[in-house]
Write a structure and sequence with these properties.
The complex is a heterodimer. In chain A, 16% of the residues lie in helices and 41% in strands. Chain A has helices at 3-30, 59-62, 69-83, 112-117, 163-180, and strands at 33-40, 47-51, 55-56, 88-90, 122-130, 136-144, 149-158, 190-196, 199-205, 213-214, 221-227, 233-240, 243-250, 256-259, 266-271, 277-281, 288-292, 298-303, 309-314, 320-325, 332-337, 343-345, 353-358, 364-371, 374-381, 386-389, 397-402, 408-413, 420-425, 431-434, 441-446. In chain A, the strands form seven sheets. In chain A, strands 2, 3, 4, 5, 6 and 7 form a six-stranded mixed beta sheet that branches. A four-stranded antiparallel beta sheet of chain A has the order 10-9-8-31, with no helix packed on it. In chain A, helix 3 (69-83) packs parallel to helix 5. Chain B is mainly alpha-helical. Chain B has helices at 2-45, 59-68, 73-78, 88-98, 101-108, 112-121, 124-136, 140-207, 246-259; strands at residues 221-228, 234-241, 270-278. Chain B is elongated, with a radius of gyration of 35 Å. Classes of the chains: A alpha+beta, B mainly alpha. At the A-B interface, helix 1, strand 1 and helix 5 of A face helix 1, helix 8, helix 9 and strand 3 of B.
């Protein structure tokens, strides 16, 4: 090899070496390891919502007019309604950075950045203006702060003060639908037994306690109300002096119908989907669960046993029925598959398990169990084959009833010394009293989702 | 970065091609150098001929002996007379012992051309005769036969050297493998660290994830890719798999954005985190 070729070789080798080094360096720079993580379930089950103050849409017209009371009333109702949603946390004004107010109620008027910095997820704006005839026009919007996009927007005209409650419920139903895909809470009613002058009557109200209405004035003892699946009828037991009767209340007419059945004990009626009625009666001296025919007469027994069988309740499909039976000596919860006729035991713990209620999707069964501290609400998850106590504290918690969404539960408790109605969820992470008045209230029965009236 | 890598890669390939073209000219001298080393080793091996009895010893042990003993080759020549009496096994092992020796001869006496011819042609009887005569007197015939014998042994030993080298290479490979295993376990340890880091990241982001859980049957799932810098700061993120529900996707992106900073990653090359957000909590009732 000549000197020249040697030199070329050396130079090429050097270059090659250099390039290899650089290649490895660049490769190491470019090297990027990826870590894979799975997160199951959100850490916070609540979204942060901030409600702005009512904002006048036409300030020039407002100069000589006072703000209508319905504007504030609606604001209060909205605040109160949202408090019933355990998955929404209302952010206070103090937690908002910068100015508390907004220039307008539309997205273009809002500086979302400061709300984002304040950890606000949802921003609710509420605008109002006066129309002719002192009608109040309101516009309520919910924005997703992260995307600065409109999630929900509704407009209402309030002609009468009574309509304020309906507007609040409708908007909150829309909000719940937007957030959870369900809106049953704000579109349903609860029937319950309320004490009145040592007697017990049937009442209905919304789950927030609004629009409470007395359905019966029988001046006797009314027990165990239950809704038909279409919401047209409420059935209950009427203890007429020394005899039990089945009573039906027609929602459309408001009339009551007496149904006379054989036996002395006629208790815990429950509608099957399709509005056929089941009830526990003792025509043979022992309470069994019977199906009634269309003329409200005993058809055939569904559960017939030497023991006491009471408190039937059906899921949405009508295939699963839970009930209480003392066939094992103590009252326990059982589930009957109406198709296969098989019976499964649900409760194993404790010696006194009663008041079963099955969720509309048949996944959960709630019931009350007598513990050392009193009666407590238990939720059994059929899918996981696990049960969990969801109420704690003093007194007794009884009569659980699933809401139409399978999320909320209403129950009666004497934790304050007197039986009152309360709301919780299947997780038990929220308890809120249903304001029904000072008198004792028990036996909540959640009605189906219906249009708000 | 990618352009730089491409250019460098191109340069590297060009260099490799050029080197391949030039390399054959350099290669010869390089091989010679390697041979020299082998010859040097086998010179030390020569004196161990007389330790033919210990032929069952392992190769690597023989190597150690080679280095320690530098006795003259005369004794080694006297002993091969016993070789025919050895068992086949011993012979084979003897081969392994003597493998370094003949190379010395090849270098010293330059008998390579001669050695190649007799190694295959000489019969066993001739070998025996040669060995026997070698014991008696250093006649010309004896010298030649001895030389031939040694050449033959040198060839055998050469083979043994090769096998020895292979064995050594295998041993070193095993060692390196063992080290590799260790390194692998070390990297596993690194993975454990990454796992712990992953748990911390999971908790940090989960704490900032807000979404209402109402429907027990709703199984939403979204995947987000997060880029972090060596300090753990989130420098970018994007949704790589949607759940089908916009509010859910927004909630997971919001969780990442609200987290802002994660603990510094345990490895410098850990720059990307892929997070799968599942609505249903496996542990939650």
């Amino acid at each position: 090899m000549t000197k020249k070729s040697k030199l070329i070789t050396i130079v090429i080798c050097c270059l090659g070496f250099l390039s290899i080094n650089l290649l490895f360096v660049s490769a190491s720079w470019a090297k990027n390891t990826t870590l894979h993580i799975d997160i199951y379930g959100p850490g916070q089950k609540k979204v942060n919502l901030f409600m702005t103050a009512p904002h006048p849409l036409e300030t020039e017209k407002l100069q000589n007019a006072s703000i209508p009371s319905s504007v504030f009333k609606l604001n209060d109702l909205l605040v109160n309604n949202i408090r019933y949603l355990p998955f929404v946390k209302q952010v206070s004004k103090e937690d908002i950075l910068g100015e508390k107010g907004i220039k307008g109620i539309k997205a273009s008027d809002i500086d979302f950045k400061r709300f984002k910095l304040s950890q606000v997820d949802l921003l609710m704006t509420y605008g109002w203006k006066l129309n002719k005839g002192n009608k109040v026009q309101v516009e309520i919007r919910i924005f997703d702060v992260f995307t600065s996009s409109l999630l929900l927007g509704r407009g209402y005209v309030i002609a009468q003060k009574e309509q304020v409650f309906r507007v609040a419920n409708r908007f909150c139903a829309g909000l719940m639908q937007q957030l959870t895909g369900r809106s049953g809470f704000f579109k349903s009613k609860i029937a319950f037994v309320k004490k009145k002058q040592q007697k017990k009557e049937i009442y209905v109200s919304t789950p927030q306690g609004y629009g409470q209405k007395q359905l019966t004035d029988l001046k006797e003892i009314c027990l165990s109300p239950t809704w038909s699946w279409d919401g047209s009828t409420i059935a209950f037991t009427f203890v007429n002096k020394d005899k039990h009767e089945l009573m039906l209340w027609d929602r459309n007419t408001g009339k009551l119908e007496h149904i006379f059945l054989p036996g002395n004990t006629i208790i815990s009626p429950a509608f099957k989907p399709g509005n056929s009625l089941t009830i526990s009666v003792d025509p043979q001296g022992n309470p069994d669960i019977y199906l009634l025919d269309h003329e409200w007469e005993l058809d055939h027994p569904i559960i017939q046993n030497w023991a006491i069988d009471i408190s039937p309740d059906f899921d949405r499909s009508g295939r699963n029925m839970v009930f209480v039976s003392s066939r094992l000596g103590n009252p326990h919860i059982f589930l009957k598959d109406m198709k296969t006729k098989s019976i499964t035991r649900i409760s194993y713990e404790g010696t006194y398990n009663t008041n079963p209620s099955i969720s509309p999707n048949a996944r959960f069964v709630s019931y009350s169990r007598l513990t050392d501290e009193g009666h407590r609400i238990i939720v059994y998850d059929r899918k996981r084959d696990e049960e969990r106590q969801i109420t704690f504290g003093s007194g007794n918690d009884e009569d659980p009833a699933w809401g139409p969404d399978g999320y909320f539960l209403a129950f009666a408790s004497d934790r304050t010394g007197k039986y009152q109605l309360y709301l919780t969820t299947r997780h038990g992470d929220f308890v809120r009293k249903i304001p029904t008045g000072t008198n004792e209230a028990k036996s909540p029965a959640w009605g189906p989702v219906k249009d708000i009236d | 970065m990618h352009i730089t890598s491409c250019i460098l890669s191109l340069l590297f390939h060009i260099c490799v091609l050029v080197l391949i073209l030039y390399f054959p000219f350099q290669e010869v001298s390089h091989q010679i150098d390697l041979d020299k080393k082998v010859y040097q080793v086998e010179i030390y091996k020569m004196p161990q001929k007389d330790e033919g009895k210990d032929s069952s010893k392992k190769v690597h042990k023989q190597r150690e002996v080679k280095h320690s003993q530098k006795s003259p080759p005369s004794k080694a020549r006297a002993k091969p007379s016993k070789l025919p009496a050895l068992k086949k096994d011993n012979i084979s092992s003897q081969k392994t012992r003597t493998k370094q020796k003949p190379t010395k001869i090849a270098k010293r006496s330059k008998p390579k051309p001669q050695a190649k011819v007799p190694s295959k042609e000489i019969s066993k009887q001739e070998k025996k005769n040669n060995k026997k005569t070698a014991q008696n007197a250093p006649t010309k015939k004896n010298i030649v036969s001895n030389a031939l014998d040694e050449v033959k042994k040198s060839i055998e030993s050469e083979e043994n050297v090769q096998s020895n080298i292979v064995d050594q290479e295998m041993a070193s490979l095993r060692r390196s493998l063992r080290e590799g295993e260790y390194n692998a376990s070390q990297s596993l340890e690194g993975d454990y660290t990454a796992k712990v880091y992953g748990n911390i990241v999971e908790q940090e982001i989960k704490n900032n994830w807000r979404f209402p859980m109402v429907d027990s049957e709703l199984a939403l799932r979204a995947e987000v890719e997060v880029q972090i810098d060596p300090n753990g700061s989130i420098i970018g993120f994007q949704l790589i798999s949607k759940s089908g529900r916009e509010d859910f996707d927004t909630s997971v992106l919001r969780a990442v954005e609200n987290t802002k900073v994660l603990p510094p990653p345990p490895r410098k090359d850990l720059k990307t985190i892929q997070i799968t957000f599942n609505l249903q909590d496996q542990k939650r009732f």
